[in-house]
Automatic annotation (TrEMBL):
A UniProt-annotated Pfam family: SRP54
Biased composition (Low complexity): 78-105
Family membership: Belongs to the GTP-binding SRP family. FtsY subfamily.
Name listed for the protein in its UniProt record: Signal recognition particle receptor FtsY
Gene that encodes it: ftsY
Amino acid sequence: MDTQQIIAIVVVAVIAIALIIAGVLADRARKKRIETAEQAREDREAAAKEAADTAIVAQQAERSGQSESEPEPPAATPEPAATSTPTPAPASSAASESAPESATSRMTRLKARLANSANPFGKALFNILAKDHLSEADWEDVEDTLLMADVGADASEQLVDELRNDARITGTHDPAQVREALRSKLLAMVGTDTDRRLNADKPEAHKPSVIIMVGVNGTGKTTTAGKLARLFVADGKSVMLGAADTFRAAAADQLATWGAKVNVPVVRSDKDGADPASVAFEASQRAKNENADVLIIDTAGRLQNKANLMDELGKIRRVTEKNLPVDEVLLVLDATTGQNGMEQAKVFAQAIGITGVVLSKLDGSAKGGIVISVQKELGVPVKLVGLGEGPDDLAPFDPEGFVDGILA
């Protein structure tokens, strides 16, 4: 082997080592950017939670000051005593509670709320993509923005690759074309052809149509069950509620309060800690006997361990199906928890076959990317979104209205 061959081999080896080192450094830089984005998102979530806790304390203080003039929540009663008579309320309040807002009006309000809010997600993307020339740092900023909006690492990388290959962005500086390109990509990832109807609204739905609500405690699951009952009442359906969350003492009272507001009977146990499956069985039997259109069963959301969760939810479903088939299992996920709630969501998805997701507390667009990541991870559509704390702040999810709202 002559000197030139040795030099050539050394050069090739040096180049190979340099490429390996460059790859390692690039991978570390990417991981660092993701960690930085995740830390920023967690800091923002902590600040939002602190603000929410402060607001809750203020609301509780206000309510305590009005407690003498407000009716007491329904007390625990035996199952046979479940009633369709609402809790007495002032005439003006009763009138408003008897006419829940329509689904169409709710979606219009969602779009307006998103358009009028600070939209860091959509606006940040548009501001970057509308530049005259996009550098590698700009594309990294795009990916960071998507990560901070809870789009998820895999989906963010996919969306960046698609945007980089779109001639409307790389070949023009027209803001209108850039916006349309971004809109079409987001719509494609959110999904416009997905059937997001509740199964109870489909022609082939059983009657009564049974919906089981699942999710971790604190996500707004029981509140969402009550709001969903109002949504069905607005559509002219007769509804019954089953309080199978017997683990949390106030859950049945909370559900009974929602039922009283819209003349919806609630089946509950006469004691705390009762077998939730027995409540579900009684509720399904009554719904069947009274020929209700929809039965909504609220369940406990504790996550002691995966085995206990699967056993309890499985039992609730089995005993319910002795009377009625279960048409829908809705997972309630708190949008503000972002990627931190995805692992818990996966546990519920494995424990009981979920058919759709309800994203609660989706009050703004900063966390809008969770819609993309939750559907990608769980393989089921987002069917409903919570808009706020009001009784009618639950609406069917509309992909086009949502994307237009965050890009407004």
